[in-house]
């Protein structure tokens, strides 16, 4: 006898995809904006270098999350 489920497997996959995709896309856009706002800052300041590196890493993480969601559903 099988146990009853609250939602189907397909609905569960879409819920997880939307949660992951929304977080990843928000992270990507936020870090891209922060990196854009730093474009005119003094490049000789080590703090600015650290921020640029951190925002670039955040953008990579966001891209991985968004691409992973697309690949999970066979879009890419």
Describe this protein with a few key phrases.
76 residues, 74% helix
Describe this protein's structure.
The chain has 76 residues and is mainly alpha-helical. It has a domain at 27-76. It is 74% helix and 0% strand. It is built from 2 helices and no strands. Helix 1 runs antiparallel to helix 2 (46-72). It is elongated, with a radius of gyration of 18 Å. It starts with 8 loop residues before the first helix and ends with a helix.
Question: Could you give a quick summary of the protein structure above?
Answer:
The chain is mostly helical and 76 residues long. Helix content is 74%, strand content 0%. It has a domain at 27-76.
Largest sheet report? none
Put simply, the count of helices is 2
Outline the low-pLDDT stretches.
Answer: none
Oligomer, anyone?
Answer: single chain
**Total strands:** 0
Q: How much is the radius of gyration in Å?
A: 18 Å
What is the SS-derived class? Answer: mainly alpha
Secondary structure: helix percent: over 70%
List the helices and strands and how they pair.
Blueprint: H1 9-37, H2 46-72
